[in-house]
């Protein structure tokens, strides 16, 4: 009987080897870089323990960079290609509740006088919220966003996501803005913006996102898809090291500290920027690195051990 119970348990673990992880924060880390993708995908799977295969998407040479600027209670996420602003999301955090105050996408600027509530992070699978919103919009056409407009937010799925540079467990956040518009103060119209965010269940990285903006009256139907640059993703050359070697502080102010379990020996550490340029290289068995001289931003620490090399992304304050 005991053997049967153990066997049944092992089968259950094999079938359900991972579970959903909370979404710790809405934004990606400042400095995160994303490649613009082309192609068609099916994002309809929803619920628990589902799978998405986006390996058919083709990466372009367009590399976008996220910048997160915070001036409490407000903040903004800017996505740029070089010096060119591509998209922007304005946010407000009041009593730990995050709301959208504005959004720029596909040349359409949405500005809300009645903010659109997302929720209080962390968000768990099964969370949902509907909120009213109101404001104005500008772009190829301009006008008012009527107070009958809504935003629907849901952590609607978790499972396995496959991309060219990623294959792992994720939790998905879906946001749909249902906009009732008055163009030029005279002509009624509708608009819909549907956005999906896929967060790495292990690192909390925002690894994939897509946005579709539809305004039929203006013949607008634009979709953008972006995947996190593989140079930012944490990877290992041998399985099992991830759990045995961790950063103890992230973001980092002056000293980068590592926590290694028994059986893991640090031999060397190198620090690179997101372009892959090695900035610092040390042959050391100490699990600390002085990074006080580095400018603020995102970096990758490559830690060489006797069991292989692991890359850990960190933010320098």
From TrEMBL:
Keywords per UniProt: Signal
Position of the signal peptide: 1-21
Residue ranges of domain Secretion system C-terminal sorting in the record: 250-315
Keyword Mitochondrion: no
Organism domain of life: Bacteria
InterPro entries: Secre_tail
Protein name: Secretion system C-terminal sorting domain-containing protein
């Amino acid at each position: 009987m005991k053997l049967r119970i153990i066997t049944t348990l092992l089968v259950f673990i094999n079938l359900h080897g991972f579970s959903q992880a909370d979404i710790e924060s809405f934004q990606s880390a400042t400095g995160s870089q994303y490649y613009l993708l082309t192609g068609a995908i099916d994002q309809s799977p929803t619920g628990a323990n589902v799978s998405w295969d986006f390996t058919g998407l083709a990466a372009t040479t367009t590399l976008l960079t996220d910048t997160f600027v915070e001036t409490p209670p407000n903040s903004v996420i800017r996505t740029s290609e070089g010096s060119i602003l591509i998209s922007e999301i304005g946010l407000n955090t009041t009593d730990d509740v995050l709301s959208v105050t504005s959004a720029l996408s596909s040349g359409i600027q949405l500005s809300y006088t009645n903010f659109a509530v997302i929720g209080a992070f962390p968000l768990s699978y099964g969370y949902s919220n509907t909120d009213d919103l109101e404001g104005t919009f500008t772009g190829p056409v301009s006008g008012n966003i009527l107070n009958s407009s809504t935003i629907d937010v849901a952590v609607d799925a978790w499972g396995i996501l496959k991309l060219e540079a990623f294959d792992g467990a994720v939790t998905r956040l879906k946001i749909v803005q249902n906009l009732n518009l008055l163009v030029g103060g005279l002509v009624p119209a509708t608009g819909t913006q549907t956005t999906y965010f896929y967060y790495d269940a292990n690192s909390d990285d925002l690894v994939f996102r897509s946005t579709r903006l539809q305004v039929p009256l203006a013949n607008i139907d634009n979709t953008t898809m972006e995947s996190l640059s593989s140079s930012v993703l944490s990877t290992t050359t041998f399985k099992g090291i991830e759990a045995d070697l961790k950063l103890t502080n992230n973001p980092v102010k002056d000293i980068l500290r590592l926590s290694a379990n028994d059986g893991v020996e640090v031999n060397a550490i190198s620090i690179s920027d997101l372009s892959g340029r090695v900035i610092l290289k040390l042959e050391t068995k100490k699990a600390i690195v002085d990074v006080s001289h580095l400018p603020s931003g995102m970096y990758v620490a490559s830690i060489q051990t006797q069991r292989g090399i692991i890359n850990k992304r960190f933010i320098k304050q």
